[in-house]
Amino acid sequence: MLSKFDYAKPLVLEEALNVLSKNEGDTYILAGGTDLLIALRHNLIDAKHIIDIKSIPELDVFEFVEGKGLLIGANVVCNALIESEIVKEKYTALHDAAAVLATYPLRNRATLVGNICNGSPGADLPPSLLIYDAEVKIASAEGERTVPLKEFFTGVKKTQLAANEMVVSVFLPDPGSAEDRSCYYRQTRLKGHDLSSVGVACRINGDGKAAIGINAVAITPLRLTALEDELNAKGITEESIDWAAEEIQNHIKPISDVRASKEYRLHMAGVLLKRGLTHLMEKEA
Ligand SMILES: Cc1cc2nc3c(=O)[nH]c(=O)nc-3n(C[C@H](O)[C@H](O)[C@H](O)COP(=O)(O)OP(=O)(O)OC[C@H]3O[C@@H](n4cnc5c(N)ncnc54)[C@H](O)[C@@H]3O)c2cc1C
Fold first, then answer.
1. Residue 200 sits in which domain range?
2. Distance 100 CA to ligand 1 centre (A)
3. 110 Cβ closer than 6 Å to some ligand 1 atom
4. Are residues 164 and 232 in the same domain?
5. pLDDT by residue (tens digit) across 163-189?
6. How far apart are the C-alpha atoms of 230 and 37, rounded to whole Å?
7. Measured between alpha carbons, how far is 126 from 52 in angstroms, rounded to an integer?
8. 179 in a domain, yes or no?
9. Which of 251, 209, 213 is nearest to 231 (CA)?
10. Whole-prediction pTM value?
11. Are 167 and 61 found together in one domain?
């Protein structure tokens, strides 16, 4: 049974932020509700106040500016990402990740911002956002701040959002070069009904440099910059991809849980990295 809570459905952002400013750790933002309603139903959280943000037009923004980048508001759902030609062409890994998330009806509700705010280490969208140096715009009644996504996650189900703050949008810089390309591969137990057992996003930019994002192998999604640096110093070849597919095991700390064993995750991280980088190299040829 659901516990009792107040429900607010503000029509402007300012109103939502004012309600949030009184938060004593018992107020939750409701976007698509695909994570939040499950947590409520199973009494995993003790919510006294719910702020439904779906009727706030400022949060619907979904706009690409050439030379600058893509702004994705807090109400933008996964199916909108999949249907966007810009996302498909310029941020292909994000398109791939949105397309494997859950099922079509669920993707009509599940937002990108909800996916990151939920703070799950196995969420599908963060690796693809991390390889594009995504920035998170956070607002409170006191003002706004922007943080790199790689600093946003602080632990399992934890982010650096303060109680009086919410995310208003995520920004992805324009990759610029037509040579820039990316992809996302994941391993999961049940298609459409589960988070990743492990998922890897790979990007090769216009200068031929690789970026690697991964989920479900640590307490937060990760950008593997140290591995990228070593790989990029070698240059991306069949041999260096094989090397990286082995070496990745030294850059992640998976655990065994209901989805997969630690050993399986270590193995699959290498398999998916090799699959991703090889696919991107073939795409260039
Ligand atoms: C059957 C099923 C299958 C699923 N499969 C997958 C899958 O394959 N891959 C995957 O990654 N996920 C999956 N999910 C999880 C879920 O659909 C996603 O995490 C979704 O993107 C969350 O977005 P939402 O809009 O529904 O968020 P909500 O449920 O509304 O919110 C999620 C959390 O984020 C907070 N929040 C939301 N918006 C904001 C904001 N603007 N500012 C601050 N906090 C905010 C909420 O308070 C809540 O704590 C699945 C869920 C279900 C039920």
1. 185-284
2. 14
3. yes
4. no
5. 999 999 999 999 999 999 999 999 998
6. 43
7. 23
8. no
9. 209
10. 0.97
11. yes
- Token pair 């849980």 is found at 257
Pocket flag, ligand 1, residue 217 (CB < 6 Å) = no
User: Is residue 131 within 8 Å of 225, Cβ to Cβ?
Assistant: no
Split into its structural domains, the chain has a count of: 3
pLDDT of 92-111, one tens digit each? 999 999 999 999 999 999 99
Helix then strand then coil, % of the chain, to nearest 5: 35, 25, 40
What is the average per-residue pLDDT within 47-62?
97
| Amino acid letter, residue 224 | L
Residue 64: its H or E element = strand 62-65
CATH number of residue 84's parent domain = 3.30.465.10
114 CB under 6 A from ligand 1? yes
DSSP state of 114: H
Cβ-contact 125, 112 below 8 angstroms = yes
Which residues make Cβ contacts (< 8 Å) with residue 190, sequence separation at least 6?
none
Tokens 């990402």 label which residue?
A: 81
